[in-house]
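Q: Predict the bound structure with GLP.
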Amino acid sequence: MRIIRAKDYKDMSRKAANIISAQVILKPDSVLGLATGSSPIGTYEQLVKWYEKGDLDFADVTTVNLDEYYGMKPENDQSYHYFMHDHFFDHVNIDPSRINLPNGMEPDEKKECARYDAVLRSVGDVDIQLLGIGRNGHIGFNEFFSKGTHCVDLTESTIEANKRFFASEDEVPRRAYSMGIHTIMTAKKVLVVASGEDKAWAIRESCFGPVTPKVPGSILQLHNDAIVIADEAALSLCGDFL
Ligand code: GLP
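A: Predicted complex:
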């Protein structure tokens, strides 16, 4: 696991965008695994800027997203479909037919998990998987170790962390479809972005703690090309280890 120290959120975002840019330049038909949440927003903004300058071309890129809320319509502004279009897809020349996310509106869990796993198999290996990390150390919406796509009951701490995006706690979805940990681990490269003091515990435990399903991000210690870009605040509990 390689840990890259960033000064702040902006620096973290530029560093992450640089790594993704290099990937797309070196391999224009890359498969990018993408994430939502506030952590990667700056990375997407930077990629959009470089695209607008003519430095990047996403025409041949395929994307697979980590997760989507169960029962959430794609046009709902809290859906991860909406998020991805709003922050990235609508601003670059990505081919809409190469964009893949779980379908939160499919009520049949078994059917949707099988469909999304088939999509993941059909696109081939993910070249680089971008990840944020939950305050409790979850990645995607994996609250434990898992294999393929599954429908997760979100933990109280995740519901609590996500309520800031909704008008009231009652509106926060209780379930979500998530790519599995095993699938995430098959990505050729994994890139975690973390900023702020509220991620300090998750970063310390994921990078230096025991590998345990209680902290799903800790599994990344076993990946042979995992990069964590974290700012000073997110690294603030790692002092003894760095
Ligand atoms: C959600 C998402 C994760 C994300 C996490 C942290 O649970 N499913 O993919 O990493 O939130 O979000 P944020 O970056 O907003 O702190």
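A: The pocket of GLP is lined by residues 35-39, 66-67, 132-134, 140-141, 158 (CB under 6 Å).
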